[in-house]
Design brief:
Blueprint (H helix, E strand, L loop, with lengths): L1 E6 L4 H12 L4 E7 L4 E6 L3 H10 L3 E4 L16 H29 L5 H4 L2 H18 L1 H12 L5 H28 L3 H8 L4 H25 L1 H8 L4 E6 L2 E6 L8 E4 L8 E6 L2 E4 L1 H4 L5 E3 L4 E2 L4 E2 L4 E7 L5 H13 L6 H28 L4 H14 L2 H21 L2 E3 L2 H7 L4 E5 H5 L5 E7 L5 H12 L5 H12 L8 E6 L3 E6 L2 E6 L1 H5 L6 H12 L2 E8 L2 E9 L6 H10 L3 E5 L4 H11 L3 E3 L4 H12 L4 E5 L5 H6 L2 E5 L4 H6 L2 E3 L6 H35 L3 H4 L5 H20 L22 H6 L2 E8 L4 H12 L4 E7 L4 E6 L5 H9 L4 E5 L1
Length: 837
């Protein structure tokens, strides 16, 4: 995805216009425009020049984001808009205060004025004109943007403001000239009448109030980026490198892969690396949200921006610049903000036609009131009110601000959503599929039992097992190797090593063939005694995994390995169940071991003996029942993570798992899954609230401004109050989104069960199931009635529609009824069944 900065956008109509213009460029597959960050993401083969040209043709500006990716630079997120708007607001208020004093204070409450103004109505009117022009010049951006977009036939919010304020100013200027002609003609009564038709203060007040609303909106929008800015502030600025035996402090940008750096207690680790000397406790809360320090020793990995607590460590740089974990997190959060959630499509469609419709409504309002006999000033006030109260901004901001704040909240807690879609969809999950090893369990198994076959020593069994497992990366292999190391077993080199996915391992030790793995795999090569199988089954019932070994077709024995469940796994499973979510455990282990682990974790449904390639098929099957989250941490989980509606990489997982996942959980904790679902649901609820407010505000405000309620209740809206409401509407939407920062992701108090019923495969198969029987021998209505009666008497048959003319019986089933049962039932009545479909 190529990222662009877009300038000139002021509301949702602008972003919709840009999106439409770029979407029509040949080679563009998808485009997403964010009003919140004034950015655009484009996917496809289109040339950047063509994309920029399309944006400029639509009346806006665009430029490729800085190609030198510095993900730790805060400059793009700096709030430059609020200070500008604040200066505009202060200047506007100075002139507006004087204008209001003259137009309202003197005219309505007889506040004192200089004699030259008080006794000269023309001078008073001219003073109002000049003060209004000053406010309009200060806020000229509304007019430039508004009329430019109107020229490009893509009116936006600024068009509404400029039309409203401009109409008030033009009409007031007309009244001023009319006053002049009336004075020259000596028609002083008419001159005083025109004096009351001056709306200069309305024009100036509209512009000032909209500027106030824009400033509050810009300030709140800046607050939504606080999480991203705080992440960037974590990045260390310098590193202490060892060069020629001396310690040298260099800027972080100069650190290269392979450099040796030192970190003292209390210092931030500058880049991702591996400890080559020393040991310490490292506080990783900046990345994972987990406040408890993690012990690190020689050979352990450390990440940039984490804090070295109490030891002096020497490390080798492994990932620098944009490749560090921190930079990748920042990039994920930033990319997610540039994408759009499906729920935003409704607001986008409305925003695309909103402004033209409002302009039409304003014109109709003016015309209707004129036809009703009202004067031009009154009718114009109604039209201006419609223009200035209408706010497409609130619609455009409803979704992106909630997405931005939700992503920031997740990032601070070690939960990273890659796209707005994943943030929205996670909360809709009905089924959570958990991989066993490393997800429910710790992923650090240990050897619990050594069972050599009769006549085989423990040492021989262990030596063969260690030689075979030395070439494997599987966690169970590491457990056996660690056990062998503890018992001083010397490793022997094997040749022709081969891993048989989901079954076991094979290799040659000299001329001798070694094999190890599941019972079925070893039994094909060497017989396993019945007593060994029986004992191994008991170990499986205890949650242990028995591994069988043989050498040259001679059975050597069994080694049992146990992987203990994580402390928080039962709690996480329980929380998911309370949310109404079905929890399924998926594992390659045998049925008994899997069920023992599942019982400890509280998981009810277990799918065992699944080969790595079969995980994806099982997820595909579960997706037929409802929306599926797949959580895993290994390379073999990647296909299943991709297949699921939402893939979650737990504990950051492997690079492959992270790439395949939609959500990355930085902590190795299962409780982050319900936390992610909670956050997603909170964000979705917030978006619904924002959209409701935006639609409700316009639905109520526009009719009120147009004067629909004046004949009934006498409710009338002053254009100045309309402008105030417009300015505050966006501020309210953004402020509501900021409440997401207060969500407690660990609290179960507000958990609600999902309303979507999960249907089992059996229910799906039998729901509205129909079978068509072709029957020979039916001659009349009596034959039909006979066949119908016997069929409907069967259990599981809800209804039978029989036709002797067509020679068919269409049978509706509520449960599965075997074909032979249907056939025998009909043929018992002396009719012949030819076929059942």
């Amino acid at each position: 995805m190529e990222q662009y900065n877009v300038t000139g956008m002021s509301c949702a109509a602008c972003s919709a216009r840009v999106e439409k213009a770029v979407g029509n460029v040949p080679g563009v597959d998808s485009v997403s425009v964010s009003l919140l960050t004034n950015s655009m993401g484009v996917e496809g083969t289109a040339d950047s020049g063509a994309v920029i040209a399309a944006v400029e043709k639509a009346g806006y500006g665009a430029a490729l984001k800085n190609q030198e990716k510095n993900h730790t630079s805060e400059e793009p997120l700096k709030d430059t808009e609020t200070p500008k708007l604040r200066r505009r607001l202060i200047a506007s208020l100075v002139f507006l205060a004087v204008l209001m004093y003259i137009s309202m204070g003197y005219m309505m409450w007889n506040w004192p004025l200089p004699k030259a103004l008080a006794e000269n109505h023309m001078a008073l009117a001219l003073a109002q004109l000049l003060l209004t022009i000053a406010v309009m010049i200060i806020n000229q951006r509304f007019f430039i943007s508004g009329f430019t977009s109107l020229w490009h036939r893509s009116p936006n919010m600024d068009t509404l403001v400029s039309l409203g304020a401009g109409a008030a100013f033009v009409y007031s200027t007309y009244a001023l000239f009319a006053m002049t002609f009336a004075q020259n003609a000596g028609e002083f009564d008419k001159m005083h009448q025109y004096m009351h038709d001056l709306y200069f203060e309305s024009a100036a007040m509209i512009l000032t109030l909209i500027t106030l609303g824009k400033m509050l909106e810009a300030y709140s929008k800046g607050k939504t980026k606080d999480a991203l800015k705080s992440l960037m502030q974590l990045a260390p600025q310098n590193a202490s490198l060892l060069r020629d035996g001396r310690e040298v402090t260099v800027p972080i940008e100069e650190v290269q892969k392979g450099d040796i750096f030192v970190v003292r207690p209390g210092e931030s680790i500058p880049v991702d690396g591996i400890i080559v000397k020393g040991a310490s406790s490292v506080n990783e809360s900046t990345l994972t949200g987990e406040s408890i320090p993690v012990d690190k020793k020689e050979g352990d990995l450390v990440s940039a921006a984490t804090i070295n607590q109490d030891g002096f460590i020497t490390c080798e740089a492994r990932r620098v610049g944009e490749d560090t974990t921190l930079s990748q997190i920042i990039q994920l959060v930033s990319d997610a903000a540039a994408t759009k959630a499906p729920i935003a499509k409704v607001a986008d469609k409305v925003s695309g036609v909103f402004v033209p419709v409002v302009i039409v409504i304003a014109a109709v309002s003016i015309l209707v009131w004129l036809l009703a006999g009202r004067d031009v000033g009154y009718a114009l006030a109604r039209g201006i009110s419609v223009l200035v109260i209408s706010c497409p901004c609130a619609l455009g901001l409803a979704t992106p601000v909630a997405i931005m704040v939700g992503n920031g909240k997740g990032a601070r807690n070690g939960i990273l959503f890659k796209t707005a879609v994943s943030l929205e969809e996670t909360g809709k999950a009905q089924i959570v599929v958990l991989d066993k090893t490393g997800t429910i369990t710790t992923g650090n198994p240990t050897v619990t039992d050594l069972l050599p076959e009769k006549g085989i020593t423990e040492e021989r069994l262990l030596r063969a097992a260690c030689a075979l497992e030395s070439q494997s990366e599987h966690p169970l292999a590491k457990a056996i190797l660690q056990y062998g190391e503890e018992h001083k077993i010397q490793l022997e080199a094997v040749e022709n090593f081969k891993a048989v996915p989901g079954n076991g391992l094979m290799a040659f030790l000299g001329s001798r063939e070694l094999a190890g793995g599941k019972a079925e795999f070893i039994e094909e090569k060497a017989g396993i005694p019945a007593n060994m199988k029986e004992y191994a089954e008991k170990l499986s019932e205890q949650g242990k995994t028995p591994l069988y070994f043989m050498e040259d077709q001679q059975f050597l024995g069994c080694i049992a390995v146990a992987d203990v469940i994580k402390e928080e796994s039962p709690q996480a499973v329980q929380e998911l169940k309370q949310m109404g979510i079905q929890v399924v455990m998926l594992t390659g282990d045998n049925e008994k071991t899997a069920r023992a682990i599942a019982a400890q974790a509280g998981v009810d449904e277990v799918i065992a003996n699944v080969l790595p390639s079969g995980k994806e098929q099982q997820v595909r099957r579960l997706k037929e029942q409802g929306k599926v989250i797949m959580a895993g941490d290994g390379i073999n989980d990647a296909p299943a993570l991709t297949r699921a509606d939402i893939g979650m990489a737990v504990g950051a997982g492997t690079d492959v798992a992270m790439e395949a996942a939609d959500v990355v959980l930085m902590k190795n904790s299962l409780t982050d899954i319900p936390a992610a679902i909670r956050l997603s649901r909170a964000v979705l609820k917030n978006i619904h609230e924002n959209l409701f407010w935006a639609f409700f505000y316009n639905t109520i405000g526009i009719p009120l401004a147009a004067g629909i309620w004046i004949p009934i209740f006498g409710w009338q809206l002053n254009p100045m109050f309309g402008a105030a409401a417009m300015g505050l509407s966006s501020f309210c939407v953004v402020s509501n989104a900021l409440r997401l920062n207060l969500v407690d992701l660990a609290s179960t108090r507000k958990d609600k069960k999902t309303k979507n019923k999960i249907r089992s495969n059996q229910e799906k198969e039998t729901e509205n199931m129909e079978k068509t029987m072709n029957i020979e021998g039916m001659m009349c209505g009596h034959c039909e009635a006979r066949v119908q009666k016997v069929l409907e008497a069967l259990d599981g048959v809800e209804k039978a529609v029989v036709s002797h003319e067509k020679g068919t019986a269409i049978v509706s089933l509520s449960a599965d009824v075997a074909d032979h049962v249907l056939k025998n039932t009909v043929e018992a009545e002396d009719y012949k069944v030819l076929e059942i479909q």
